[in-house]
Each structure stands twice: as C-alpha cells, then as structure tokens.
# Entry
Amino acid sequence: MNKIIHSIFNFLYPIFRDWGMSRSLSTYVSLFFNIILLCILVYGLYVVFRFILVTVLTIVSQNTKTKFDDLLVSNKTATYISYLFPLSFVVESVPVILDKFEYWENVFGQAVRAYIVLMIMWIIRTIFNTLRDYLKLIPRYSDKPIDSFIQVIMIVLWMIGITFIISKLFDIDQKELLTLLGAVSAVIILIFRDTILGFVASVQVAINDMVRIGDWITMDRYGADGDVIEINLATVKVRNFDNTTTTIPTYSLSSDSFQNWRGMLNSDGRRIKRHIIIKASSIRFLKDDELNELKKINLLSAYIDTRKTEIDNYNIGHKIDKTLAINGRNITNLGLFRKYITQYLSQNPGINKDMTMLCRQLQPTAYGVPLEVYAFSKDKRFENYEYIMADIFDHVIASVPYFDLEIFVMSSENEAKPYKQK
# Structure
C-alpha cells in the first residue's frame, strides 16, 4: 500500500523539477496538485465502497427473514462504514503528501485520526439504534425504556472517545487526562445531574415495571393525562387526550406521585363510582298502600313481597305497636330505592357481574345523603364507558320521583331546593 501511495503522490515533484522550477516552487505546486488528487481519490473511494456496502447489505436484507439487517439499512450503517476506507487512505497518504511539512503532517494526521474515532462512534451509534428499533419489534421488549439504556451506553462510549481524541490532539497522556477529569468531576456531575437522575430513574422504572410505553398515566403536577409514547434517559413523553404532548423528567417518575391506569386496562372492568345527593327531608317510611303501588315495578315485586312478609312476621312475633311507623322494622323509600338500583345494575348488560357491584350510602352532608353507584363496566374504552355510566345515571335520576324522593340542587341564590320530576 505504501509503495502505491508513494508512486501516486511522488511523481509530480520530479516532473516540475525537470521543467525548471525551483526546489521550493516545485514543492508547493506538487503539494497543491497532490491535495486535489487526494480529494478526488478519497471521494472516488467513498462512492465505490458506499455502493458496494449498501448494495450488499440491501441484497442480504431482502433475502433474509430477520428485520435486523433491514433496520441496519434504514439507519444507514453501511453508509457510515464506507467512510472508514477513504479516511484510512487519507491517514496513509498524509505522511507522503506532507513529507516536507512535518508540523502540518502531525496536525492533519491527528485531525484525521480524531475524525476516524468520531466516525467509529457514529457507526456504533447506528448499530445501537438498530438494536433499539429491533427490540421494540419484539413484544417482550416493546414497552421497556430501551432508549434510556442505549443513551447511557452511548454517553460512556462518547466519553471514552472524546478522551481519546483530546489526548491525541493535544498529546496528553490518557492517565493524566483521566486524573484531570476526576478533579473536575463535581462540575461534570452538576452538568449531567438530570442525566444521572434520569438513568437511575430509568433503572427503577424498568426493574419495578412502573411505566411502559403505551401506558395511560395521569400526573397532575405536570398536567399529563394520556398515553406514554416515549421513555428516554432525560424525559418521558405523554400524548394527552387533547392531542397535546407533555414532557416529564424521567426522575420525576420515582420521586413524584402519578397514576398508572394499566391495571384497569388489564382488568375485567372499568370502575364506575359516582353519586347523587338525596335531600334528607324526603327520606321516610313507606305505607302499605305505597308498597302495593311500588310492587308494579318488575324489579322490586318479588323483593317487596319477601321483605314485607319478613318484617310483618318480625313485628307480629315481637308484638310491635305499629300505630307509630317508627316502631319495629320498616321499609324506607331510600332503602327500597337502593335495592332497585342494585337490581337495575344486575340486569344491565354493560356491567360486569363478576366484579364488585353495589349501591351504597356515603356519609351524610349538609346538602343531603349521597347515594353512590359502585360497579364496573365490561367495556373499558373511553367512549363506551362514558356512555354506559351516563345511561345508568339517566335512569337513576329519572327513577327518583317514583320513590317520592328528592334530589338536592342548588338555586342561583345558593339555597337548597328539591328536584322534582313533573
């Protein structure tokens, strides 16, 4: 190789000398033409090797089933590798071309070697990017924060590469350079604080399986409410349901509280937990004639018969004085309404009967008695879930007047007024 390079770049100098040029002029003129010739040869080598490598890799990728080589093509790995051949040729040619310019030979030689290191780092980066893209195609790894680990590896490699480049460019021993870097480690830690915190958080997120790509998370502090679309070393990107994007520092996932809805999405139902407020003054005991009227409600007919028989037997057996309704056991309109809602939920095809399903009272408030529906819809999709829940409460609210109950509402003068259906 050296003989070929010498024969290419040393033939001009004797020709210029034979033409009668001085030694100095012949040196500079031959240098000028050698540089032009070097540029032409380097570009030609780049075109040839790029064509060969890209063509070969493309043919291989088209004839194999694996996606890895296809991703190597899309990440232009072969293109970057093709740079190494002309750069190696430049390294070998510089000492010949700049033989009489020792200072510039050293400068350009070190600069080209530094550029080769950068190109090698770039090639490694494309390979890791290919590995990242390939792992994301595998279901087992598609929801893992692969970007974070790739970025950490690249940071370490870039630090090694930059250390090598600096040591070569400025002729500093690598041990001395590492000692110098250790002395300024506090500054480095300060600069890369978020990166270090992000790396630690990424490890915690991966080990504890806290967040995956595709998870629906809610983080009020950052206004995030949507799907995780990217997890990298520094940030987590969330596409909110209003199509905006929220960027969250990765370390916040381990230091702040957030809500992950993955458990709900993986479960058999999505929770419905909503209440209405019944005006306390409308709650009362029901009379026999009212019960007979309410028996017309299909969902309550059998229950009223069974419950009334049970209560009458108890009151008669204990000789309860029923001249006052408060004595003994009784059926209230609110209790019967709760039973009706429970029966209605059990007949609703949108409710998962295998999960918790109830209608319960909450702690009474100054506004009245909250009556809460607690159940799980079978369909967890947002639109269908909202439809099921709205349909249930449409029916619940419309049913209130049949039990002579009243829903609390607030008037414009902030006074409590009952809700009545006409």
Q: What stands out?
A: The chain is about 60% helix and 15% strand. The CA atoms of residues 339 and 359 lie 8 Å apart. The two ends are 101 Å apart (CA to CA).
